[in-house]
Amino acid sequence: MMKGMILDRYFRAANYLSAAQLYLLDNPLLERPLADGDIKKKIVGHWGTVPGQNFVYTHLSNAVNKYNQDFILISGPGHGGNFFVSNAYIEGTYTEIYKDVTRDKSGLVKLFKQFSFPLGISSHVAPEVPGSMHEGGELGYSLAHAFGAVLDNPNLIAAVIVGDGEAETGPLSTSWWGNKFLNKEKDGKVLPILHLNGYKISNPTILARITKEERKKYFEGMGYEVIEIEVGKGGIFPDHKRMASAIDTAMKLFERGKNPVIILKSPKGWTSPIENTFKAHQVPLERHQIDEIEKWLRSYRPEELFNPDGSFQKDILDFCPKGDRRISANKVTFGGIRYLPLELPKVSNFAVDIQNDTLPKQDMLILSAYIAEIMKLNPNNFRFFSPDEAMSNRLYKPFEVTKRNWQEELRPTDESLSRDGRIMDSMLSEHMCEGMLEGYLLTGRHGFFATYESFARVVDSMLFQHAKWLHQTKQLKWRTPLPCLNLILTSHCWQQDHNGYTHQEPGLVSAMLNFSADIVSAYYPPDANTLLFTMEKCLQGKDKINLITASKHPSPQLFCCKEAELAVKKGYYIYKDEPTADVVLIACGDTPVKECLEAIKIVPNKRVKFIIVLDINIVATLKFNVPTIFVFHGYTNLIKALNPNFTYYLGYQEEGAITTALDMRILNGIDRFSIAELIAPELQSKMQKKKSEHKKHIGVFGIDKF
Amino acid sequence: MMKGMILDRYFRAANYLSAAQLYLLDNPLLERPLADGDIKKKIVGHWGTVPGQNFVYTHLSNAVNKYNQDFILISGPGHGGNFFVSNAYIEGTYTEIYKDVTRDKSGLVKLFKQFSFPLGISSHVAPEVPGSMHEGGELGYSLAHAFGAVLDNPNLIAAVIVGDGEAETGPLSTSWWGNKFLNKEKDGKVLPILHLNGYKISNPTILARITKEERKKYFEGMGYEVIEIEVGKGGIFPDHKRMASAIDTAMKLFERGKNPVIILKSPKGWTSPIENTFKAHQVPLERHQIDEIEKWLRSYRPEELFNPDGSFQKDILDFCPKGDRRISANKVTFGGIRYLPLELPKVSNFAVDIQNDTLPKQDMLILSAYIAEIMKLNPNNFRFFSPDEAMSNRLYKPFEVTKRNWQEELRPTDESLSRDGRIMDSMLSEHMCEGMLEGYLLTGRHGFFATYESFARVVDSMLFQHAKWLHQTKQLKWRTPLPCLNLILTSHCWQQDHNGYTHQEPGLVSAMLNFSADIVSAYYPPDANTLLFTMEKCLQGKDKINLITASKHPSPQLFCCKEAELAVKKGYYIYKDEPTADVVLIACGDTPVKECLEAIKIVPNKRVKFIIVLDINIVATLKFNVPTIFVFHGYTNLIKALNPNFTYYLGYQEEGAITTALDMRILNGIDRFSIAELIAPELQSKMQKKKSEHKKHIGVFGIDKF
């Protein structure tokens, strides 16, 4: 049989299954004329992008065989999940996982019915789909996920179908630059396939309306070799030839160390009765158009593709790659199946000896030595990501082990850059840091993203979507647990000076904690030793998002190694116990803790119990029968929601002035004097005097320290 | 005097003032050798980007005069605010606003001291700086702000200095495409100036390391004509000639309807002792290097620029544009000074007559007729923005008044696109929608952004930074109030079916309400008439961010026009009063309201008081002495924080299944049966039966309606 013939037959099978998923409840092989009862009551789904994606899948499977090469496929478009399900079903992976969806007529009925159906499967590529490590829905992260997936995976090619709608988002637009950060020997390759089908929901796409010459320039400008082909105009056999040749060219370019991009121009709604208009975005035919639906489905000639029992004809099965080489069965995408355990050094080797060293320490700098050792012990499965802030955030020590990754020109005025650097700090994009880290974790490796607390908000929605992914994949037994997504929030709101008000925003934790504690944790280690143990805990965890707020400026140290270990384990620490205390003082966050420590010195004769909270999820469990003051790093709304039983809630307020860090605490009322006054109201006039003395000096002290 | 001479003199003056702001406390004209006491104790600020930005400012001022043309300048880089302050001071605007910063030696001392100093002014371009409508800090929105500012401002050119670091962010990367949405006659022009100074904080920039040829292709691909110049290598006079000529070329290209981009390659830290390395990012010299600081400051030859009293020499003042033409005094950037009042039609003309028309209605569709009329009445100062979702969100009627804006090729398969369309719906980027709307509002016009509730999270941080802008500008009397930023959140979490779990995320409101009520309001109108009055209120407001959650699917209507007006005015509505009620039921959000209405029908004999909350900010004021059930649209944490006094808090939970809307309500426990059971515990077994009957049918009902 001619090669084009089997490509066409596989492609028709995938298209038939995809269209049937939209419409059919029964009569899966069209053995009889289509009747009203064979069709779903409400047709919900998207066809526009599906045939183009089936076309790509067909040719990637072909390339897996031809080049004996591992491919994974990341589908960027928001919808059209039926395409991926169809291919996983043809390849057999779907039935291996969902055993009731058998490879016969009754299985076909189940396959078709469940799609975009209540309690069935979603209309986009979701975690339930084998072979997918990327969910449709919120657009823009497909390329970033791919770049993250191939880091330290030298034998892998991640093909990415980028929708031309998705390509207009900010995150996707900057993701193309990811090619500047892949090492030719140590990392795999990314093959972006821009799917130019011309329309979004109801508008044309920008990339489809600029000229072919402009598209070429745009991508060449970003360092790609452009292979643009158009299909759907002059017969399907020439189309297959064009695409096979495009992939051959791409493979040759990879061999020469180049970065290919394939631009695949295909009609929106290709092979359906409605082509080349935005109206093909969802379903080309309504349910009452039964004759047209039947005609369309029959145009794929299912009788040539299936045996009478509903199984596939042999040549189609023979065409599919085998075992783990099947794109839908590639274990790289199955979560932690290829999980490489992380070797962690003993935390105690890095802990501050607070008995013998009483100097203030920079918590992040102490942490950085631990991170450096982890990088040394795990040269192929641990990375950290940062938007040009690693040095600002005091992550100095890893630079003694490795350098920053940079594949463009190197100059003598550069520092700490190299081709094989493992620190991902050279691109100023929170979206790329977060997206590449997700791609790295989703393929079973480990790492963290360290950034300014305020600007972590930039990737707020990405974190939420990752939490949703975890919420779903935890219920899928065939996916193994993932390493945690760890986010270090530093340069935080209490440590700004000249950066001022734009850099003060502690709200990410509040937003993320709408998610339940089994997915999201937030930690506030108040010193270096607790930060070390917190990091250890987060790196050992699975299937969670951990938000760690940490101090970077010199600051007194509180816990010896042993106490720190205990405090992190319990999530809180009773720093000063007084069984008959009049007042309970609780602090969470490095700045509140240190102000509270000063406050309890001012009120020596009062019986105050002082508790330090490190893990926000224990807040709900705290209850005392005396007045309780909670001093929080962030917005008090969160604490009020978690525990309504406290007497006073102090925390960050919108001040807006440019001040010293100490001024900020006074203006926000979380300073030692305000806290002392709450504990001991009889000190009020004395404390007010202290505060007003301080306020007179605001702007004179310069940048203060604790 | 030669032209180059005065350009050089002005440039030197701006650089001198900028460097002096970093270092000096006294000795402002260097009339004596620099002494230790003349220098700030802690030097905090950034020099790297400053001279290049002064260079641009110099040449834009020159162009204002030469072309008799209004320019505003948006400074994208995160830091270097001293540059803008310096120019505003030379032009006199600064002293007009801050009268104590006089144009003499004592004023210079104040000017220098306040910069990046506690309770002084911030180190980036902040709202306090006249001429700025864009704050440094969170990067990536400069171009989007500029594109928004020039819409309906045909005589304006918005020049934008885009930092080469900022250019790596997602939002900025896609902003270049904004050129596809400016009408040649009705809108102004954007002149992007990519400031290629080669380094970020400690890494090189991508755009500076790719080849000149690649840069040209990249921008040509996006439809720009590239003018790349390099300065700082062969003498300052040729540099000025190059830049003046680049601007002349840009002006010629504008005349021909082209989109120029100027790429200005200048050494990082230009004119300082440290050039061309990332080490020039912050301060090139430390405070102890007094001799070098003095030498550097003297290199600008202040004695040639100032008169002995500290005023500027006449030729420098003569060079400055006059009055409102000064870039720092251009009223476009002063908030609402050029505020065009919005003409609003009577809401009652659009209200549903619920007495005579009892059919379900689509709230968003009813709203769309009101919006259409506003667009008709305000053809030059009202727009709405949407990421290809206007139709999906039922904003149909404005398409009868105008079309979508699209400047690329038009094809017969397109619908509702035109060159002069005023609906900004054609670019799939939440960042661009939000950024352009901000630019439009910041220049005194009106509008809203309508989007899927879930994906509004994508611009979470932008909204927060805009709230911070408002928090600050409200305190600046010389800035007049701004029209509100109105966000319509629709296709919300209770109205998903096939889109499923990724599209369910009601948390934006929770995150934003960490801000105080004087800046952020959240409204939950439960039907069309209340939605209309809510929109009217939001469009009439000033200096706020309004979040409006609205239903788009057919749904029963509740309020007649008069009741709706009252309900919106009060923020709540007592739907069923019972002075001796056993239970108070409160609902907020269209779905909770409708389920509660069904629930109170099930418990007819119970004495239930039922209150509908429309304005979230009144939640804190509600207190009853009987058990109270609060049923909320979003996450209950928010309601718990606002009011801890209720007995039950029901709301959205992370379900994760694909279900019908009714199934979702059952699974989340906000259905009529669950609510009835809470009101009347004696109904428990009956309600449990109803629920389990329903659950049996889950997946059978198809897409249900209320």
Could you walk me through the main structural features you see in this protein, from its secondary elements to its overall organization?
- The structure is a homodimer of 706-residue chains.
- The first copy, chain A, has 706 residues and is α/β, with parallel strands linked by helices.
- Helices cover 35% and strands 13% of the residues of chain A.
- A 6-stranded parallel sheet of chain A has the order 9-6-10-11-13-12, with helices on both faces. In chain A, strands 1-2-3-5-4 form a 5-stranded parallel sheet, sandwiched between helices. Chain A has a 5-stranded mixed sheet with strand order 14-16-15-17-18, sandwiched between helices.
- In chain A, strand 4 (225-230), helix 10 (236-255) and strand 5 form a beta-alpha-beta unit.
- In chain A, helix 1 (3-23) packs across helix 10 and helix 6 packs across helix 14 (430-442).
- Chain A is elongated, with a radius of gyration of 29 Å.
In short:
Two copies of one chain form a homodimer. The first copy, chain A, is of the alpha/beta class and 706 residues long.
